[in-house]
Amino acid sequence: MLRRQRIIRNRIHKLVNAALFALGFYLAFVLRSNAESIGPWLMVVFERFGGTPEIQPFAHYSLYMLLTVPAAMVLLGIYGFYNRPLVPSRRQTAYALFKVCTVLTIAVIAVMFLAREQLSRAVIILFGLFSYAMMLAKEELVRWWIRTGLEKG
């Protein structure tokens, strides 16, 4: 019974994680495409790193998002993210997520470079940051939920 519960829990986590990575990609695109309207200071930051005010529409990024989400799930599995204890240490969680988000960000930028795409790399970097932050927040919520359930019963 415990094995079956673990399998179900991992499947739910994988589904939520995939949604969070997709949401992170979309939020990164929205932030970068609306940088001027959010605040001129944000566009100044992007321009310092060679960015232009205009970026390609989301349709140009959708292929990378469709490739990134399954790649994130594979990397999470490779780095042992789904083989942790029920309540893992924060350091273990943060380190595994950092490795996955870093490798994924570098890999997507490398693929964009090799494909000679002229897309904003800031979207990909922001995707890595947003995904890392949202995954850490999700893990903290799960940790809190499990701990409160264990204390009650």
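[next item in queue]
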Amino acid sequence: MATLKVKIQEDVILDNQDYSSKRVLEIASIQDVFKRIITIPTGTDATIARFDAAVSTSVVGTLDVDLVKYVRVTNLHASNSVNLAVVGDTENFQVLLEAGKSFMMGSVNDAIVAEGATDTAPGFTGFEEVSHMIVDPGSNEGSIEIFIASTSS
């Protein structure tokens, strides 16, 4: 087993004031890593990962929902954005992932909730597990990298 070390660093000096920040997160007992670079053709929605009650060898990218501890999706394209959907059993949310930007999350078990389109008062209840993630490159070709780290228990 290994320890995953995630480093986030921002370097900026504004008006001679340093606003830089560096954060390090260590996740112990990592046993499995799923990493893939995917080129997605124009107009195609691509399922980039699946999560279920157990690892599946029959469906590529199906990981145990209870064991996933870290997920990162990075848009590798130099100029095109992609749409990322995080889909649960009954709900989903979508984010625009601009060129070069990343989306990160920790556990995918009881990790998401989506509320009504006009609901502006979050209830913070009813979280559900992520079942899969989809990337839609829209009217342009897309290229993403997905990295997922899981423990053994």
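[queue empty]
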